[in-house]
């Protein structure tokens, strides 16, 4: 059996083409959990109190997993066993060898699933991960549920909006992603709200602006650009919106720092003649490649001095907010104003 993407795996499960073993991992929790429910519904047989078994991979031993899989189903031909929060690194080499033998020779009466939500490509770096993944792939299916790129997310949103009785055009779908971020769970939640409001008509950008609050992450990048441009009105408007959403100053500061760090890395990469792939090979942008693309697009507009000054100012602000008893909101505003003043001076040099 192969390594399959999430769409192929879901299609096989819907068709009833089940494999004896599965390894699901990745950072896109919504798709992972939805596929897990789909598989559970297809694989579990009555009485489910006996034939639907969930184990905690952080607490269960290899022997307990083996026993659960090899014990015959009760008054049924098949049972379903799911090992959640699975991490091969928590098992000894001997126990992992035992689990490898189990998945390489799975019982005919069991669908055995191992889930590692939030894990990324660890198995490529870890011998235990790689060996276990290959063992599962020899008899079953290994699937990574990674965060979708903008194009895939837009397509999913457009299809879902149509099912909910509304039209969502691609520019509006991309704008919604820009506002909400790449979490499919969050996007679908906002889309449901929008389709209820639009009531069978086309969802517009104005609808999104009216109903969908910006995340700290999406706002922080716009705030960073406004600061570097010295655009007081836009910067303070974004900041006021974040405070109106009751976002904590430290959270705003953290997101803003991350945005400036993206810009700094992009600027350094461009100065060195490097590409987005070179940045992704060094820094943890798996599933967040859009951040690199945005930073590379905007970095040429600003000088290295500006970005570096802002990073130093943010580092100083972080120390002040964590150690001072003053008003955190005022201290954050003062830091942002100091960065904009520097940007204004740079513009006149």
Distance between the termini: 63 Å
Largest sheet: 5 strands, parallel
Low-pLDDT stretches are none
Widest beta sheet: strand line-up: 2-3-4-1-5
Number of strands: 7
Task: Note the overall shape.
Answer: globular
Overall mean confidence score, pLDDT: 89
> Could you give the order of the helices and strands?
HEHHEHEHEHHEHEHHEHHHHHHHH
Give the radius of gyration: 25 Å
- Give me the number of helical elements: 18
Provide the structure class: alpha/beta
Which band does the percent of strand residues land in?
Answer: 5-15%
Write the layout of secondary structure elements.
Layout: H1 6-14, E1 21-26, H2 29-43, H3 48-51, E2 52-56, H4 62-70, E3 79-84, H5 93-104, E4 110-117, H6 122-125, H7 127-139, E5 141-144, H8 150-163, E6 167-168, H9 170-180, H10 184-198, E7 202-203, H11 205-211, H12 216-229, H13 232-244, H14 249-271, H15 276-282, H16 289-298, H17 304-323, H18 328-347
Parallel strand pairs: 1-4, 1-5, 2-3, 3-4, 6-7
Helix pairs in contact: 1-2, 4-5, 5-7, 8-9, 8-10, 12-13, 12-14, 12-18, 13-18, 14-16, 14-17, 17-18
